[in-house]
Amino acid sequence: MKNFLRTRIAGAIGCCLICAAVAGRADEKLSVLKVGTQVYSNVTVTAVTATDVYFTFNKSVANAKLKNLEPEMQRHFKFDAAKADAAMAKQQATAAPSPLLGSSGTEPDITRANAKAVMNEATAKVIAIVNQPVQALPVTPSMRVSTYSPGWFHDGAVKPEFGTVDIRTSQDTHYSKDTYVTSDLNPGVAFLGSEIEFNGMTKYFYTDRSLPKKRLTDAEMVEINRLYGIIAKCEEKMLAPTVVAAEFVAVNKKKMIYATAGVLLLLLPIRFMRNRREA
User: What ranges do the domains of the chain cover?
Assistant: First the structure.
């Protein structure tokens, strides 16, 4: 887990360095930007990464893959195919299926022996999905930015009911009403409101509350639901047998009383017949 957190911290630092590197291109004006067959007009470049260019156009926002630009614009944005491939490979490696967890739509074999390891890996996977970096944009004079204060989130978090919750029902995308948003914790940078969210059923896994959280896709939320189910089964497997028995009795107390009474009623005639024979 420590290695995992170090990796996430390194990724966050890398993201900040990228933002710093592209700040010089912030607010760059282009009359047109051609992306494949799509042509955007009145373009203002807001950021450039190893793989993408982010921009506004005609009061809307978009991003495009650098590899899809015309060669002249690729050179203009210093596109490096090798670096882009490396960045994409890193993203794909993060999304690769785990031997312990299986892939989407499958259920791993969980035993008392491997439950702890499976739960740790499922938890790490949830943390990785929930805390994906969000593109930070240098604030420019032309940007209308809504500021949230104090910070992005309130203190505390509710532990989800892993076995029953559906995080799709608690996704809050109210930030999308504003084109750009920021908080008092992020001076000088802004985020696209359409790219971030709040979810009370994933907040338990937020690792850095000074940054907004990426708006999850439906597929990502379905995967988290699957991972939550795995965590629930792991927690159940890790319970001591006496605890499992006690919980079973507590949940099924009335049924057990009725069952016991039924058995006693069945035994009474047998006892009566035995007593008559002995007499």
Answer: 1-96, 103-238, 241-278
